[in-house]
Design goal:
The complex is a heterodimer of chains A (116) and B (112). Chain A has no helices and eleven strands. Chain A has strands at residues 5-7, 10-13, 19-24, 31-37, 44-50, 53-56, 65-68, 75-79, 88-95, 106-107, 111-115. The mean pLDDT of chain A is 92. Chain B is 0% helix and 52% strand. Classes of the chains: A mainly beta (116), B mainly beta (112). At the A-B interface, β5 and β10 of A face β6, β10 and β11 of B.
Chain lengths: 116, 112
């Protein structure tokens, strides 16, 4: 079974530029998550999708971050414009149902973003 | 507010020695707790989870964790560490909305 795929793996941009990350979850997983992991910290949830609908985006900085999951499969996370403090690893995860402790989240390798 | 705390930023152990990584939790209700491992360049991998029942939980790769309500702890243990266990370890909890919240992590270094 293929895991969660993310691209690109690394990205370096100047501040105020735009950037987009792509995630392909495990086939058949209804729930998709985007996390931000700043160096020295644990991952922080940015947004959760159930199929193509948003379940929780309370911690997404909506003035500059946006995410979509068209057709309930792949997802894209965008930052526009980027700030220095956006430098982090962006992790995508997926799970089968998104409910209950039995529903394990599977993580992709992440995209490391550096904003100069 | 719900939280998990990992008091040790970095731990170094010798290969073959035993390991214990600490995690303390603050929870209003029944805690749902997890341990994840993150190897360099890899995504997070679930080692084990606790939600009820037996307080000693067995996981993958020879890890176990013990839930102690009296101490608000969920420490991860391994009797004999291998060089391949060098990684970052995260304790995590689950919110009522089924979202994970993580501690700040403990980096494990294994010396030969």
């Amino acid at each position: 079974e293929a895991g969660v795929a993310q691209s690109p793996r690394y990205k370096i941009i100047e501040k105020r530029q735009s950037v987009a990350f792509w995630c392909n979850p495990i086939s058949g997983h209804a729930t998709l998550y985007w996390y931000q992991q700043i160096l020295g910290q644990g991952p922080k949830l940015l947004i959760q999708f159930q199929n193509n609908g948003v379940v929780d985006d309370s911690q997404l900085p909506k003035d500059r971050f946006s995410a979509e999951r068209l057709k309930g499969v792949d997802s894209t996370l965008k930052i526009q414009p980027a700030k220095l403090e956006d430098s982090a690893v962006y992790l995508c995860a997926s799970s089968l149902w998104g409910q209950g402790i039995a529903d394990t989240q599977y993580f992709g390798p992440g995209t490391r973003l550096t904003v100069l | 507010a719900q939280s998990v705390t990992q008091p040790d930023i970095h731990i170094t152990v010798s290969e073959g020695a035993s390991l214990e990584l600490r995690c303390n939790y603050s929870y209003g209700a029944t805690p749902y707790l997890f341990w994840y491992v993150q190897s360099p360049g890899q995504g997070l991998q679930l080692l084990l989870k606790y939600f009820s029942g037996d307080t000693l939980v067995q996981g993958i790769k020879g890890f176990e964790a013990e839930f102690k309500r009296s101490q608000s702890s969920f420490n991860l243990r391994k009797p004999s560490v291998h060089w391949s266990d060098a990684a970052e370890y995260f304790c995590a909890g689950l919110t009522g909305a089924n979202n994970l919240f993580f501690g700040t992590g403990t980096r494990l270094t294994v010396i030969p």
